[in-house]
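> tool_call: predict_assembly(chains=three)
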Amino acid sequence: MTTRRRALAAYLFPPLAVAAAFFVIPLAELARQSFSGGLASYARFFGDSYYLSALVITLGNAVLVTMVTIVVSYPLAFTYWQAGPRRRSLLVILLLSPFYANVVVKVFGWMVLLPAGLREGYWAILLIDVHRAMPFMVLMLAAALARIEPEVMESARMCGASPSRVIRTVVLPLSMPGVVGGGILVFSLTLASFIVPLLVGGAVGGRFLAVLMYHQITIAQDWGFGAAIGVVLLATASLAIAVGNRVVRGARLGRVMGDGFGG
Amino acid sequence: MGKALLTGYNALAYIFLLAPIAIVLVFSFSDGAGFAFPPSGFSLRWFRYLAGRDEFITAAVVSLQVAALASIGAVALGTPASLALARERFRGKGVVEAVLMGPLVLPGIILGIALLQYFTAIGLTRSFERLVLGHLVVCMPYAIRSISAGLYGIDPSLEEASRTLGASHWRTLRRVVLPQLRPGIAAAFLFSFITSFDNVVISIYLIGADTVTLPIRILNYIEWQFDPSIAAISTIVLVVTIGLVSAAEALTGVIRKTTM
Amino acid sequence: MAGIHIERLRKSFGRETVVDIDALEIRDGEFFSLLGPSGCGKTTTLRLVAGLVGADAGRILIGGRDATSVPTAKRNLGMVFQKYALFSHLTVAENVAYGLRERRVADSEIAKKVTGALALVALPDCADRYPHQLSGGQQQRVAMARAVVYQPDVLLLDEPLSNLDVKLRVAMRAELKRLQQTLGITTLFVTHDQQEALALSDRIGVMRNGRMEQVGTPQEIYDAPASVFVADFVGGTNVLGGVVRGVAGASVEVEIDGCAPLSAGHAGSFAAGAAVNVAMKPERVRLAASGPGRTGEVESVAYLGSGFSYLVRVGSQRVEARIPDAVMVDGRPLKAGDRVAVVFDGATARILDP
């Protein structure tokens, strides 16, 4: 028993030391920095309609992207779920290629594809954000659908329900954990979206919190204010994840976690 | 009727998903200087052009070095962390897990700016070290996830068997657990490598004038110049990433297991 | 070689007490089985002896030495796991050599002992193969060789036959017994299969809810179950509710609804009017198809190969009778719906507390 305790300490000390030094302490320092002028940075943020509207734009975009992504991804997840094993291995490759492609490469690809008039501005942001979020969403939904036992659907069909009715009354409700889980994931991913508004956002791109923060740090060199924007962004994302987990738990659907803030 | 509609929609959606990647691949082999479609002919001129550009070569070297070092560190730290998290029960495990896995859920841009400020405060000025440490922190959770998945796949009775046969905890670790865990550790290294090689949002805060990673170099280049050389370098990044993913996938089948 | 001595051994997981054994003595060289349904604590008891889980209270002595706080690695045990737990990255020979290497045995000696152990389990030509290249039965033999090659004090077997198909299981049973007798090693065997326990053991401990319900030889357990639970679990026993009519010395007269009164031996003390259970082997139940007192009704007849099994309803209860030759009535075999008289053999019946 004592060997195990000693082993446990030896196992955990190095990784925890690194995580403390380069994750916990820097974040705490960032939070402290945001209060360096008392509440001044926050007063400035919440007292200025420019920054408040930036918060609204960032949040609104995340909501819109999430909703659009759910709608456009669901049929893909459904088809994936219904496909046989060989089809699936093809589809998973098609899904994972854009999933793993570097965000800069994806944005560049869209810049080449889009006609000049659409290459910059809000529509470009919406389009690319949805494109980035779709593989996540399809895989999350497919995982939720995979948990539905075929017997449930068969018994619904035995009861005389038409295929479309089975989808509406059985498949959709049972896949809700995936919808909520994927939704939270996409929402928090999009909230922190940075490269997309930076590269294709044009004027409106500068109104996204992540870009705003970057400019405060690198151009205005206003550390306290940049840190405060970061804290606001982090608080919003955490709140979304917490609320989402709450909803999921309330509905006894199992836990979801945000993951993969690729930029 | 409904089925045909669904099939049609799927085809369009996958075209949408793959189009930006496909277009990059196509134009990287074009012989023209613009992006007029279809490309006028096939050539390797943009790859040759890249071979002569020092800023891309150095960026690639920096990216590979940072990814290698961060991944080695992530595996070295992630292996013991996984052994504790996947095999032991102890008080405060939730907190330990939150601290170790936290970088996975934290928006990268926030960690990036926090690290920039912190490194400046503690006087760590060299960009290369900054990049390695920053990437190490974000790679560690991925390494822990892969190695833990590997550990969950090893029957705990193997370790018990080793103990009944007379091997101590450490001997069991060396003679049974680590050899059994080899594929998980390899996958952890590959996923860490991809995570580091792909990173933009932390790197963007930590790079220095002469220490730039490849994705950041591409990012900067797009703002200045818009020609197929970017497509060529993007193709190289894509090939490296997809190659690493396939290798990791072959080792673990993680994605297959969770979504099929 | 060594016996195992257990006293006041307790283990709980959370609020649930899974093992609570007052005393248990496993003799040197004995083949002892822990038998019980899943969740009865038999596997935890084995793991406590192995040191794979720590005891909350009590002592475990192996060969007279207190092993309670000795780490597993230093207890000098051999253990065969349910799924064998062979090291898939090592060859068969390396698997068998594992324990010898931990004991710093010289290489030349190791080679000799591994060859000997593989010969002992009748697997001489598999030394250089990997576990996944072997069949289930062969893996089982390797696990056995690995556990005994360094001459451990005690051999622990955690349902080692449960992953084999029925035919192989019976064959391996004989093999296991032969091996144990050849080595004369004290063996603690965990199983939920009463056939296996009866066939292999010198003695059996039947466990229920973490406690020892009965310890005895296979015959004792089978013929004289100490409780309804043991009778039920070991199986093949009719357990019928009855009422005590009178006590006369060592025998009790019991009335079972719908049957003739019977006198049976007992160990406890019973008062007239008390409700009791009567345990009775199906082989000891006779059926009379003619004559008086035919209060039973045949519900079903099954041919078992070695004889016939009749399920008879008497009053509100059901009795099984096993009879080598078909019971005839009016020149034809007895069939469902016929009325019969049920006759118990008081000499072999056991009166149990309800």
